[in-house]
Design a protein that fits this description.
Length: 69
């Protein structure tokens, strides 16, 4: 999740959208292959998304406050 957040601080727009969709597919694929329900896959993807959002917020806060989180 930290790697994803750092990447998204650099890449924006359509490139970021494409990368994010690819990343979400990489999160979901092994779950789907293991027979995990679509409902649980959705929960896992949303949890990953929330974690990345929190990391993005922390990274932005650090840069805004001179590195102190």
């Amino acid at each position: 999740m930290q790697q994803a957040a750092r990447f998204l601080t650099i890449v924006h727009g359509p490139d970021a959208d494409r990368w994010w969709k690819k990343r979400v597919r990489r999160v979901a694929a092994p779950l789907r292959a293991a027979g995990v329900s679509e409902e649980e896959i959705s929960r896992q993807v949303l949890a990953f998304q929330d974690a990345v959002q929190m990391e993005l917020h922390a990274l932005c806060s650090q840069s805004t406050h001179g590195g102190a989180a």
